[in-house]
C-alpha cells in the first residue's frame, strides 16, 4: 500500500509514525507546504515572551530526522494543488523548483490543519508590515524580529481566544501597552459569560485594556509607509498600534477539497467516522481539518487543539494499517494561563447543557486549592450536573494554583459518566501542601449531589431574574453585621447563622426562601436549619454574596 499524507504538523506526523510502527511494508509519503514539520504552535507565544529562549526548541524534529527514524519520505515546501479521487492521484507543486508533478495513492490522509480567519479590514490591507498571525514558525520568527528591530510600545490584539490571551500576557511581560479588541460580548467564548468575566477582570487588573462588542472599522498608515499606525473601532474610538496581532480564530483548511465530493460536516470541518475515514473511499482526515464529536451529546464538535490532532493522527495511522483503534469523541477540554490566573474548562457549559435539553443543577464552588495555612489560593469551580441522572456534564475553573489537576480529574470523571455522588467518593491524594482535607473536587460532588436531591441551589442570574419579575421572595443574609453592611443581596434581611434558629418563627415558611453567606458554606448550614424547621422551599445562593456581587458587576459592565 502507498499512503500519502498532506500536512506534517501534529496530526500528519502522528499518522505516519503510528502507521510505520505497525508495518514496514507500506510506502508512506508526506507533502508539506511549509518549511517545518511537527512544530509546536502552542509554544509560539512563550517564545515571543522569551519564556522559551530558542525557537529551535519548538521544532525538535526536522524532516531529515523524521525520515531516517521512520523511513517516511517527507517533502517540505511541496504544495498539493488538486486531488482526483477517481484516479486516486494528487497534483503537487515543488515550491522550490516550480516543477509540477502527479503522485498516486492507495490511501490519502488529509491533515492540512486550519487557517486563520482574517477580518475583512485586514484582508484588504494585507500589505501592512506590522500585522502578524500566530500560526507557524515563520510567524514566530517574524514577530520576534519585528520586536527586536522596531521595539514596539503599543500592541493591539484582535481576538480574545487562547492565542489572544496568551499573546496579551506575553507582550505585556515584554513591556508593551496591550489592548485586546473582541467582536463578541466576552473573552474566551467557550466559557459561560460569568466565568469569562473573571478572566476579563484579571486582564484589567494586569493593565490590559479590553474592548468587547467591538470591531475594527478603519486603519491609518504611518507616513504613507506599509505599517498601520492606528485603527478606528466600531464605537468611534481610536487606538495607536505599533504591532497588531490577529488572533481571530481559525477555520478548517478545506480549500483543496473542491470537486472531490468529500463531505463537510455541520462545524465546517471534514466529516469523519470513528476510524477517521471520510465518505470517499481511500480518503481519511485528521487534526484541525476534521471534526470530532461530543462524548456527552454525540453531536459534531470542532475544537482545534494539538492534543486532539495527535490523537486523531494515531487512530488513523493505526486503522489504515490493520489496527483496531477508534475515535471515542472529545469533551473540548482546554486550559490557559493568564498572568496569575489559570482558566480551564471541560464538557458542556451551562448554556450548552440547557440547549442540549438537559435539566441542570449549577454549582459555584469557591475554595482554596490547598490548606490556608500553607498559602492556599482561592479557586472557583463552576460545575454542571444533570438533575435526572446526577451525571456531571461540564466544569469551568478559574484560580491561581491546582486548576490543571482539578480539570483533569473532572474530564476523566465526565468521560466515564461519573455522577456528582461519584465525585465525592473519589479517593484523591491529600496532604496540606497539595489540597484541603475535603478537596474542592470532593466538595463539588457533595454539594451538587445535595442540591440535586435535598438542598437546591440558586444562581445569581436566576435570583436576579426572579426578583425582576416581581416574585415575592424571602432573602436572608447569614453573615456578620459588618459584612452585611458592606454589601448585600437586594432586599435581604440580616439574621446571622447563630441567631437563625431563634428567629425562624418571624419568617414565613411558605415563601420561597434564599439564604446566603459570603461563598456558600454557611448558607448551606442555614438552609439545613430552615428545612428541618418546616420551611417548604429553601435555596442556597450558589457562590454566596461574592458570586452575586460579581454577577452584578458583570451586568453593569
From TrEMBL:
A molecular function GO annotation: oxidoreductase activity
Listed cofactors: FAD
Keyword vocabulary terms for this entry: FAD, Flavoprotein, Oxidoreductase, Redox-active center
Residues covered by the Rhodanese domain: 469-556
SUPFAM superfamilies in the record: FAD/NAD(P)-binding domain, FAD/NAD-linked reductases, dimerisation (C-terminal) domain, Rhodanese/Cell cycle control phosphatase
Family affiliation: Belongs to the class-III pyridine nucleotide-disulfide oxidoreductase family.
Name the UniProt record assigns to this protein: FAD-dependent oxidoreductase
